[in-house]
């Protein structure tokens, strides 16, 4: 695979199934995968966050802050 070439679906499936890309078995961390929300190991369960992608970490942090602010005003 060349540097700027888009990874194949086969490569993406291998990344998801590789246990080295999962921290404690629940946090997906793969710097090669540029997707913000890749599928979980079992695709039927939805999506997860790629914590190796800085954009996904930023988006996750913003979402948590918004939820905390909303919970403060709902009480």
Write the layout of secondary structure elements.
Blueprint: H1 9-17, E1 22-23, E2 27-28, H2 54-74
Description:
With 75 residues, the chain is mainly α. The chain is 40% helix and 5% strand. It has helices at 9-17, 54-74; strands at residues 22-23, 27-28. A two-stranded antiparallel ribbon has the order 1-2. Strand 1 (22-23) and strand 2 form a beta hairpin. The model has no long low-confidence stretch (mean pLDDT 86).
Cα distance spanning the termini: 52 Å
* Fraction of residues in helix: 40-55%
Structural class comes to: mainly alpha
Task: Sum up the overall morphology in one term.
Answer: elongated
**Average of per-residue pLDDT values:** 86
Tally of separate helices = 2
Brief sketch in words of this structure:
The protein is mainly alpha-helical and about 80 residues long.
